[in-house]
Write a sequence for this structure.
């Protein structure tokens, strides 16, 4: 196996596969309803990769060092027969970790089939337990009920450990993080607080709305004392903290105040078959055309190796300078490259 490394010596280890750009939510920080309303046209079926194409690409990428797969979207549970794709991926030798990120709304119906197909674990986005705050943050007015039921069934069928993604925005849900910490500590799930990021171009991001990792730790620790612990892998995105009383742990994804580009080992594959070497990329690299033009595995492997070995992305480390010089680039939307 040839292990691809980029210009900074970062290995290719994590692959995030977006299986659809569609979503049943309209979270303002990702896919605002005002820009992606009812008339918005998502990718037509013929434009998205088939399961066979996704599996073939994944096999080749595993040969190049990928061992961790995360299925994303849009909302991946909207892709019909997603459990069939999970089954194919679970059978690829060399994958050590097969996970899926979902908004949880359809999880109660799908959890059993996903588990039986070979999915290891899920990450569920739930940004507040306060129904009014959550209704505002999902852009559809939905309550937390379906998501909490999805979590209950996921735990019941053994899709664990369960992690909870919580985007923290000052003045939106910043005042509810201790409730979230207390609630998920009780359930034994790992709450991961995410600093609000300038993903894409639609969310009107403003640094003042960022609640920093240090502030999140201070706020929670005031009630539930925390202490830092080592990351499991260098390339893991979250800073880890455990409760001093042994009540479990939390994670914090601090892309704004404590960027972690130095160990970033993530490649993203979009539903329409483009490869992105950074969450804040301005453009992708088409691989679907190469696949559908009949390229051999070796030809595809050469393209992938070339793409990764020429990679120099480290946007989060450059953000402050880009802001200071007012040279912020236009970026691909998060729901198009899978977060
Ligand atoms: S900003 Fe880009 S390079 Fe940095 S950690 Fe995020 S995805 Fe990786």
């Amino acid at each position: 196996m040839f292990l691809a490394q980029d210009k900074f010596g970062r290995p290719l280890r994590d692959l995030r596969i977006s299986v659809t750009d569609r979503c049943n939510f309209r979270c303002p920080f990702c896919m605002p309803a005002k820009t992606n309303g009812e008339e918005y046209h998502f990718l037509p079926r013929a434009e998205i990769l088939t399961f066979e194409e996704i599996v073939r690409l994944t096999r080749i990428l595993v040969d190049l060092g990928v061992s961790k797969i995360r299925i994303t979207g849009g909302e991946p549970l909207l892709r019909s027969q997603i459990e069939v794709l999970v089954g194919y991926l679970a059978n690829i030798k060399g994958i050590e970790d097969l996970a899926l990120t979902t908004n949880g709304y359809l999880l109660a119906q799908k959890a059993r089939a996903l588990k039986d197909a070979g999915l290891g674990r899920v990450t569920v986005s739930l940004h507040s337990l306060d129904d009014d705050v959550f209704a505002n943050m999902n852009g559809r007015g939905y309550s937390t009920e379906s998501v909490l039921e999805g979590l209950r069934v996921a735990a019941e069928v053994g899709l664990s450990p369960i992690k909870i993604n919580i985007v923290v925005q000052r003045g939106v849900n910043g005042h509810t993080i201790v409730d979230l910490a207390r609630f998920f500590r009780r359930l034994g799930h790992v709450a991961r607080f995410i600093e609000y990021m300038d993903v894409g171009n639609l969310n009107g991001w403003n640094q003042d709305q960022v609640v920093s990792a240090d502030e999140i730790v201070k706020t929670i620790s005031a009630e539930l004392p925390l202490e830092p612990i080592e990351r499991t892998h260098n390339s893991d995105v979250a800073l880890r903290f455990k409760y001093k009383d042994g009540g479990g742990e939390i994670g914090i994804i601090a892309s704004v105040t404590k960027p972690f580009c130095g160990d970033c080992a993530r490649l993203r594959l979009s539903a329409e078959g483009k490869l992105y070497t950074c969450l804040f990329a301005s453009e992708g690299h088409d691989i679907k055309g190469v696949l559908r033009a009949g390229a051999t595995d070796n030809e595809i492997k050469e393209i992938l190796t070339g793409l990764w070995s020429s990679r120099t992305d480290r946007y989060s480390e450059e953000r402050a300078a880009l802001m200071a010089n007012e040279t912020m680039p236009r970026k691909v939307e998060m729901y198009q490259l899978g977060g």
Q: What stands out?
A: The domain at 14-337 is CATH 3.20.20.70 (TIM Barrel). Residues 255, 260-261, 264, 266, 278-280, 313-316 surround iron/sulfur cluster (CB under 6 Å). The chain has one domain: 14-337. The radius of gyration is 19 Å.
